[in-house]
Amino acid sequence: MHESAVKENIKGRILIIDDDEAILRVLSKFLELEGHKVTSVLKSVDALEVFKKNVFDLVITDMYMPEMDGLDVIRNFKDVNMNVPIIILTAAGTISNVIQSLKLGAFNYMTKPFNINEVREIVNKALLTSFIHQSQKGFISFLTQSYSKFRVPSLIDYLNPVVFYINHLVDFFGFKSLWQIQLAVTEAFTNAVVHGNKNDQSKNVEIELLFEKDLVKISILDEGTGFKIPDLKEYKLNDDIYASSGRGIFLMNSYMDELLFNDKGNRITMIKRRDSE
User: Using an 8 Å Cβ cutoff, are 41 and 52 in contact?
Assistant: First the structure.
């Protein structure tokens, strides 16, 4: 990345959240003078609704607010759009939650009182990141096939990293049904760990991802003994025979376009087609 690209004043749509009206006014005015379109919100709980109804290239939020603090903002906003950069505002000398915010997915942080040059630089870097992500969409038209395979220990703690990784690829390849795929993967991985491998950490869960132009195929294999393959055409949620993992199967079958099982019953393959979104 060229230094000149970072220094360029990129124009963007910015949402600012701070319960201090004076700070909100000063920061909004500065960014508007820089050429950005700014929406400012005093109450963090109101900001979530604003974020859901509008498109933003960047979010700047105070860390310490009543009702919903900066960490809650990151969690809730990332559920709506995991790729929007979020900058945390915190008072100088009180950065105890900054590390946690970065681990949750914050892009960067700024301290109060503001250094104007620092604000400009961090905002431009965040907007550059946002626009690079948006510009990748046109590249997807060249996709023919992308395949990846990985194996993780049978531990439920690995659920979040697995889902985050798959979400990133699903979004990169332009599938709009992000939350359906996310929930299906959550159910399948949980079933593999809990019902397949019986929480045995000496066993692994193997995940294969295949992206093609019109579909994504996700296969999850556990090292358990398998189980009776359900007849999905006749399957009902309360069927006793599938009670141990039946809810997960019901949900996966609802979220995805196609569900396939191997003969042993320890591999599930889920297919989501682009034209069904």
Answer: no
Q: Which two tokens stand for residue 200?
A: 């045995």
Structure tokens at 182: 């996310």
**What dihedral angle (degrees, nearest 10) is formed by the CA atoms of 91, 28, 105, 92?**
-10
Question: How many Cα atoms occupy the beta-carbon half-sphere of 102 within 13 Å?
Answer: 9
Instruction: Look at residues 271, 140, 150 and name the one whose alpha carbon lies nearest to residue 204.
Output: 150
How does pLDDT run across 158-213, given as a tens digit for each residue?
A: 998 998 889 888 877 878 777 788 888 998 999 899 989 999 999 999 999 999 98
**pLDDT higher than 90, residue 9:** no
pLDDT reported for residue 1: 36
d(CA 18, CA 28): 11
Rounded Cα–Cα distance for residues 12 and 127 (Å): 7
The per-residue pLDDT for 179 is: 74
- Cβ 198 vs Cβ 147: under 8 Å: no
Contacts of 170 by beta carbon, 8 Å cutoff, 6+ apart? 178, 181, 182, 216
The helix, strand and coil proportions of the chain, stated in percent and rounded to the nearest 5, come to: 45, 20, 30
DSSP SS3 for 96? coil
pLDDT tens profile 12-48 = 999 999 999 999 999 999 999 999 999 999 998 899 9
The pLDDT of residue 243 is above 80: no
Rg, Å, the chain Cα set: 22
For residue 190, what are its two tokens?
């949980």
The DSSP code sequence of 44-105 is HHHHHHHHHHS--SEEEEESS-SSS-HHHHHHHHHHH-TTS-EEEEEETT--TTHHHHHHHT
Q: Determine the Cα–Cα distance for residues 184 and 166; give it in Å rounded to an integer.
A: 11
What does the block give as tokens for 216? 């994504």
Which residue's entry shows tokens 């096939």?
145
Specify whether the CB–CB gap between 235 and 253 falls below 8 A.
Answer: yes
